[in-house]
Amino acid sequence: MFWKRMFGDKSAPAKEEKQEQSERQDQPEKQDQPKESGFFRRLVSGLEKTKKQLVSKVEQITTGRKIDEELFEELEEVLIEADCGVTTALLLVDRLRERAREEKVTEAEELRAMLREEMVALLEKNAAPLKTPTEKPYVIMVVGVNGAGKTTTIAKLAYRFQQEKAKVLLAAGDTFRAGAIEQLGVWANRLGVELIAHQEGSDPAAVAFDAITAAKARGSDVLIIDTAGRLQTKVNLMSELSKIHRVVQRELGRELDEVLLVVDATTGQNALSQGKIFSEAVPLTGIALTKLDGTAKGGIVLALANELDLAVKLVGVGEQYEDLQDFDARAFVAALFGEAEN
Ligand SMILES: Nc1nc2c(ncn2[C@@H]2O[C@H](COP(=O)(O)OP(=O)(O)O)[C@@H](O)[C@H]2O)c(=O)[nH]1
Ligand SMILES: [Mg+2]
Prior knowledge:
It contains 14 helices and eight strands. The longest helix has 19 residues. About 8% of the residues have low confidence. By secondary structure, the chain is an alpha/beta fold. It is 53% helix and 11% strand. Strand 7 and strand 8 form a beta hairpin. The chain has an eight-stranded mixed sheet with strand order 3-2-4-1-5-6-7-8, sandwiched between helices. The structure holds guanosine-5'-diphosphate and magnesium ion. Magnesium ion binds next to helix 8.
């Protein structure tokens, strides 16, 4: 488990550790499988809309047909419609064209498996999990435009760390709206985790400073910092985010563990420009892509993985705590194409 690798003995009772070990022995093959079934089912249902848009159309146009240039153009269109982005759609189709030639494939249906493989390869190129904790507090700063799903993602992460017996502290760094502080407060209450918050309109860097101080004093395992996302005042927001990052880094005496950009999957190709803008302000370490359940355009994952030099680390496929998943390229593509779990 993510957290226990680092703080296992201290934060989890010995009894539970033992139980876990015997579970592992019972199911040694588990580790090689993409995900447990419940987890996989959530992914499958979260990707339902994209599956209809993307995979069903690929199936339609490749059924009972020989491969020709027209087919490749149709495939390109389907990929673009699912928000893979022009660059990435062209790249994928070029790979298919090349492979079809090399492998002397003539039946269009055979392209489906190839497309799956090429998608996995592309998604795995930049893939990386959340960083393994090495030192307390493990600090995550969360950035992104308003409504992207930052606060919700923070709640889901806090829940996950809590499940792993970590002591979590949240920092209400979106001081721009009173509602935002309150919203994080509600989550903190519900989860029973601690919160550092100041008044509306106060300096978010001061909140972050207090949060780091508190995390050290209280021996928190994890600190997650929420931030504002008003892109209308882009310059101000970006300098505010840089300042928060600088203060946290200085007080921590090292680089933050994660600086996650939260991106709403329904925003389409705009997601790419958000990635570029935010990476100029803070050193992003990865992407959390939310609301995949609400869009038929999940192809954006491919565009992000291919065009930004950043790993998609987490995906949100619903509004339940469990709907924030570690991104797994193989499981993702398998869920999309409606394959069996392994
Ligand atoms: N369906 C769905 N809704 C989500 C997901 N993540 C966030 N949301 C919703 O998106 C809305 C905005 O989220 P919020 O966390 O307040 O965004 P913030 O402004 O970036 O902090 C809320 O209504 C969330 O419930 C997701 O993965 N799936
Ligand atoms: Mg928020």
